[in-house]
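Weekly modeling sync, notes
Attendees: AB, CL, MP (scribe)

Item 1: holo prediction request
CL wants a bound-state model with zinc ion before deciding which constructs to order. AB pointed out that an apo prediction alone won't tell us much about the pocket. Agreed to run with the ligand included and paste results into these notes for async review.

Input as submitted:
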Amino acid sequence: MVAPSILSADFANLEKEIKAIATAGADWVHVDVMDGHFVPNITIGIPVVKSLKKISPLPLDVHLMIDEPEKYVEQFVKAGSDYLTIHVESTKDPAAVLKNIRALGAKAGITLRPRTSVQDVLPLLSLCDLVLVMTVEPGFGGQSFMHDQIAKISALRAEISKQNLKCLIEVDGGINAETALLCHEADVFVAGSYVFGNDYKSAIWALKDGKLPSSK
Ligand code: DX5
Ligand code: ZN
């Protein structure tokens, strides 16, 4: 599946952009929420998620890069987040936040910074519908893919099989047709600059097919 990150979309035309990626074959809309504390950048918040929910034909996959997410998850779920992902480093009790997201009726996701050990999320997988592997330092679109994060995908795949869980593995950061091939064990590819910087349909289908556009 492919979840284009609207961080690289035209913010003055989000309805048009979301409808265009839906027509081009996207599965979810990835929404990056940044607070200027957990990461050194500020993006969008609850009112924008609420507005996107009214127009989006696709599920909203909301990636919270904020401190103390426990204070805001209820509002993000009520605003229409279908998947709501928190960072393991952002809260003292990630298990409680994940349980709350599910109790509120959304799918719960956990993610980790590149420098965080995958061991930190393994005990949380049974509380999750999604685990997101960051392949760039969170905060900005357009960065280069970090190859040293690929091993986390394999470790997660092994643990998900071992525990017989249904948790999806998503990968985010520097994803394009080449780097997606290296992440073949992932279920969902997030891509911002690659999708919005190219012909949407060709880029989305290159990621879905697991082939380089030239080899199609
Ligand atoms: C980074 C965000 C990503 C970002 C991906 O903090 O979580 O979703 O938008 O952008 P690209 O695909 O350009 O690396
Ligand atoms: Zn993201």
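Recorded for review: Residues 150-163 form the longest helix (14 residues).
Action items: CL to compare against the apo run; MP to circulate these notes.
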